[in-house]
Design brief:
With 207 residues, the chain is mainly α. The chain has 9 helices and no strands. Helix content is 80%, strand content 0%.
Length: 207
């Protein structure tokens, strides 16, 4: 169980990449006072929690509704995560998790929902990881492990956002890029393993 928890924790931390999205958070809240930044961070984390919990609880229902096997989902999820990992390895934001600005949309909205919670924090990659890790023969145990793991990662993300200006000043963009590349490397390994597990289930002869 401890091994499964560590695997889930590392996977979710890598795909969520709190240090990598730190500059984006600062850019989106550049016109805010520090206390307002922290309010936005808190709301974004709460919204992200609701999104991830929803997909954790309804993941199997969604897969069954569309007659999608967990192995097929793992292959697709692995490909998606590898695409995100590739961008992280080059220290650039993935288009899958890139925010759009209010000016581009022509409307004013709460950035703690969009784009912070979705798609930046609880984006397709994170949702895919949650659903893939929670699926399997021991769904209750797996779901519990994943739940605790993403709560820990969300709390960590909130702490990083809470002290965002100080962290950014202390580390600098170059160090943040190094961390982002490291997360990309870890995520690429997780993605290949996820896809390989799915292929093994779809084509048992490959094992």
């Amino acid at each position: 169980m401890i091994t499964s928890f560590i695997h889930a924790l590392v996977s979710l931390f890598a795909v969520m990449n709190p240090f990598g999205i730190l500059p984006t958070f600062l850019a989106l809240t550049s016109s805010h006072e520090v206390f307002e930044q922290r309010q936005v961070a808190r709301k974004a984390i709460v919204n992200s929690f609701i999104i991830l919990l929803t997909f954790l609880l309804l993941g199997n229902v969604i897969l069954n509704l569309f007659s999608i096997t967990i192995d097929a989902f793992r292959v697709a999820g692995g490909i998606l995560l590898f695409g995100i990992a590739y961008d992280l390895l080059h220290a650039k934001p993935s288009p899958i998790q890139s925010p759009f600005t209010n000016e581009e949309q022509g409307v004013t909205h709460d950035i703690s929902v969009t784009p912070l919670a979705l798609p930046i924090i609880a984006g397709p990659g994170t949702i895919t990881t949650v659903m893939a890790l929670a699926a399997g023969p021991h769904a209750v145990q797996s779901s519990t492990i994943v739940f605790v793991a993403f709560v820990v990662v969300l709390i960590s993300t909130y702490v990083i956002f809470y002290y965002a200006p100080a962290i950014h000043r202390r580390l600098g963009q170059e160090q943040l890029n190094v961390i982002t590349r490291l997360m990309g490397f870890v995520l690429s390994i997780m993605a290949v393993q996820m896809a390989a597990t799915g292929l093994g289930g779809l084509f048992p002869g490959l094992r």
